[in-house]
Amino acid sequence: MGAHGTPHLSEAAPRLTNTVGLGAPVSRLRGMRSDLCTALGRMGISTVRELLLHVPHRYLDFTHVSSIAAADVGSTVTVVARVDRIREKTPRRNMHVLELSVVDETGLMQVVFFKQRWLARQFAVGDWVAFSGKVTFNYGFKQMVSPFHETVLKAGEAAKAAADPSSLERILPVHGLTQGISAGWMRRIVSTALGSAGDVVDPVEPELLGPLGLMSEARALRAVHFPASMAEAEAARQRLAFDELLFLQLALLCRRELDLAGVQPVAHVTNGPHVAALRAALPFALTEEQEQAVREILDDMAAPQVMRRLLLGDVGTGKTAVAAFCLAAAADTGTQAAMMAPTSVLASQYAAKLGPLLDEIGVSWALVTGQLRGAERERVEADVAAGRTTVVFGTTAVLSEGMEFVRLSVAVVDEQHRFGVDQRAALRRKGVGADLLTMTATPIPRTLALSVYGDVACSRIRQRPSSGAGYRTQAITPENVDLAYAAIRDAVDAGQQAYVVCPMVDESDEAGEDLPGGVDDVPESQRAAAAKLHAATVEAQRLGEIVFPQFEVGLIHGRLSAAEKDEVMTAFRDGRIDVLVSTTVIEVGVDVPNATVMLVMDADRFGLATLHQLRGRVGRGPVEGRVFLESAARKRTAARERLTALEQTSDGYELAELDLRLRREGEVLGYRQSGGVSLHLVDLEADSELVEIAHAAALDIASDDPRLEDASHVPYAQEVRARYRDVLDGLN
User: Fold this and answer.
1) Facing residues of 504 across strands?
2) Nearest-angstrom CA–CA distance, 644 and 655
3) Same domain (yes/no): 203, 167
4) Which residues make beta-bridge pairs with 626?
5) pLDDT-based confidence at 588, cuts 50/70/90?
6) How many domains does the chain have?
7) Does some domain include residue 228?
8) Residue 442 has what DSSP assignment?
9) pTM metric for this prediction
10) Do residues 502 and 601 make contact, with C-beta atoms less than 8 angstroms apart?
11) How confident is the model at residue 454 (pLDDT cuts 50, 70, 90)?
12) 106 and 162 housed in the same domain
């Protein structure tokens, strides 16, 4: 046996071949057609490994099937029955109803689908179909409305079911699909891949797996797709989830090693006169949590290693004041600092807040955004290049070719996940070996922080030092939107201001284009209603002309130029705009204490984290804020559950935990469409113990061999490169 308890080469040769075959293109699989390869490519599947890791998103457990007679009204069950009759009706315009009469040996049930005309082509009389859903009772029959369904046997195979009913008693995987690949084809393709490359060499040592009771990777790959029981399916998922966590952690740690290879870190002076002067100049005393965060950050900066730290703080917890100490420490060290924000509005806001403090303690600074042009920009660039300017606030304009620092030793980046990979690489080039503090107002649960930010240390601030008057949140239906309009009128009449937030910019947008998570997260049944979603451009015109003709109504959204957005926000801050209609461009950091009312249209189309950050824009002054979440979502739906949670709590971390249960982690962070790392197999709530163990294991491996160059770590390096090449961005 080898060092890892694996067979010698002669015994393991077939498994080694299979392991290498995981990287082969799916086109090499037996029976693969070009159209199937193209369809898989649309799903991001190009290799056998990616195919086998495309695990089922649910299972139909036909080992626990209810007969029609035994299916209790009000219960959620799976019934396997034969299609006896198919009827299509159009009771009124734009309303299509598909009715199936299905039978088994115990009785008859009606299955109804609304507004899904295309489904009629999927059924034929004589098909045996599994239906999973809630049983109701209507018109004298048991009924399911829009259940999940899977054709088990086509009409021509029905004799098999009649002759051997036990042939249906199995667990059927339900994979994510795309146009051009049916559920049956996906199962056949996966089965072929398992046959040709499923018996692989396990990349993880038995010494690590044994104490966890995790099955081998080869068994897990087979069991997750074709389990003998639901317990086996879950055990297989846990093993593959552990792999995903471990290899992601190793990828992040390897990336850190690459970033810092050959870099000479700066040991900052953190007890100098500028730091002391800043503490004295602050118009308030830091909270205990802020003090703790400052200590952790300054300790990192003083150490002879490059800092990589994430500052987590809910809306209004005072992250900006904490970050200011980084800037003062750079001044004491005789180096330079940059503070970057994702929008020019927020960059200008940081300059407005911290600039006067820096002036008071004798630290020079400049603001660099896309609007800075001509002679003024040349002057700023010259001052930075000569070292006359110590601190630069800005957007990605800070990364432009003309901006050269004498010695950039610390960078503070707000909402880093909104910056692209190229922008982060450019920042590293501007300040080789610079300490990096990233900040986010997105409340991130510990498990998610360990998983996605496993290569950085974390500081958290939960308490708001000065929360203002706070806010009340109320979910309303479209019929009750006048309640919000009345609150806006009262606020403006009292000299205050209001926001109205919409999910889309204009009516020509595709469904979901401007929604967190994108069109893939909008169910098919809801896409037809997308035309009714509120668009900011249309709503601004309607409010200004019909609802609030006596008020000044403004409009801001992401498609405006930076200069246009600055102009609108300046007018709003100055009180020249009473009601600002917006998309989520105001989500991050915008601070107008005079704004006291917010109305979010189609609030069910936003995630909890987004809604929580949006409502943090009001109630920041002495007047309590009112937040209205308008939604047509029905009761007892996930969307309504999110809105109810917002009504009941203002604890961002409690909401983040709920958001994580309801949605994918990439959607919680807001990077699903911008190329961020996404976890496909991990349930961050159920797998919290696995997260901790994988994080500790990765740290242990990387501390001894940070580049995974040891012979015993070759399997790890291969998996890391195969799964997370984009993360590594240069690991040899």
Assistant:
1) 535
2) 11
3) no
4) 472, 597
5) low
6) 3
7) yes
8) S
9) 0.66
10) yes
11) confident
12) yes
